[in-house]
Design a protein that fits this description.
Elements: E1 26-35, E2 38-40, E3 44-49, E4 53-59, H1 61-65, H2 77-83, E5 87-99, H3 106-112, E6 118-129, E7 138-146, E8 149-154, E9 160-165, E10 173-177, E11 189-193, E12 196-201, E13 211-218, E14 221-227, E15 236-245, E16 248-253, E17 256-266
Antiparallel strand pairs: 1-2, 1-3, 1-9, 3-4, 4-5, 5-6, 6-7, 7-8, 8-9, 10-11, 10-17, 11-12, 12-13, 13-14, 14-15, 15-16, 16-17
Length: 268
């Protein structure tokens, strides 16, 4: 499995940024990916969008079908190869409005419509990535079919994705970072949108242990639905978070209580 380009969190370059409009905030499920050579409606995809931060998890059906809740050291070579097909990333989102002026190809015409139209451009600045970043910036034009369904069309590649916002994913929006670790590894970050939470920790210098976990918080319990690390799936973790200061929060996970830094905080 490939190493990411960085396992730190290079936040400083993105300190000045505008908030993402409320229309985009929440947790989005992808129902369809269309590309010239394929269509995909079976990959598990969750995109969480806060006011600034995003986190994304993508697990192909083949990897889900042969899931084993084992530590990575106990997985076979075939199982590790399936885990390598997973995708995920986390970073800062920027949305701008632009006018399309380029003459579209036939495929672009079918996906984008006529040239000269005004549209939102959504750019996902990936600060950490499960795989090394590609040569192009991750960006797409966005068009809402209704408030809870948006179509993303590729700018640097011919694709179209249909996204549906999950109920209960708006209102509260929180991004937290664990203080600097004594072992010098990348800190854990927690992202909460409504009743959903994602945990992100870039991998160690060696090994496929990049943790992106997604689940639902209900009655004070975070149930991990899916993760890049299968041994985390199905976990039920007692969880609570309380703002303890202007830039801090107290996080309780099972019996462990610790102080975290807040990257953003919006109440319901």
């Amino acid at each position: 499995m490939s190493e990411p380009s960085s396992f730190a969190w290079p936040d400083a370059a993105y300190a000045d940024r505008d908030a993402v409009p409320p229309a985009y905030q929440g947790v989005w499920m992808r129902s369809l990916l269309e590309m010239p050579e394929q269509c995909d409606s079976t990959t598990f995809v969750r995109w969480m969008q806060l006011r600034h931060w995003h986190a994304d998890l993508r697990i192909p059906a083949a990897a889900l079908g042969d899931r084993v809740a084992l530590p990575l050291a106990q997985c076979s070579a075939a199982q590790l190869a399936l885990l390598a097909t997973q995708q995920g990333f986390c970073g800062i989102t920027k949305i701008t409005t632009e006018v399309t002026t380029a003459v579209p190809t036939p495929l672009d015409s079918a996906m984008n419509g006529a040239a000269g139209a005004s549209s939102d451009i959504c750019t996902w600045h990936r600060l950490v990535d499960y795989h090394p970043p590609g040569p192009q910036v991750d960006a797409g034009t966005m068009a809402f079919e209704d408030p809870d369904c948006v179509i993303e069309t590729g700018i640097h590649g011919p694709y179209r994705e249909r996204w549906h916002r999950l109920p209960g994913s708006t209102g509260r929006a929180i991004a937290l970072t664990q203080p600097m670790r004594a072992d010098a590894l990348a800190s854990v970050r927690l992202f909460i949108a409504g009743k959903y939470m994602m945990r992100v920790q870039p991998r160690h210098r060696h090994g496929p242990d990049f943790d992106i976990s997604f689940g639902v918080i209900e009655a004070g319990i975070w149930h991990v639905e899916h993760s890049t690390m299968p041994q985390h799936e199905g976990q039920r973790i007692a969880f609570s978070v309380i703002r303890s200061g202007p830039g801090t929060a107290t996080v309780v996970q099972n019996d462990a209580c610790s102080e975290w830094e807040t990257l953003e905080w919006m109440e319901e």
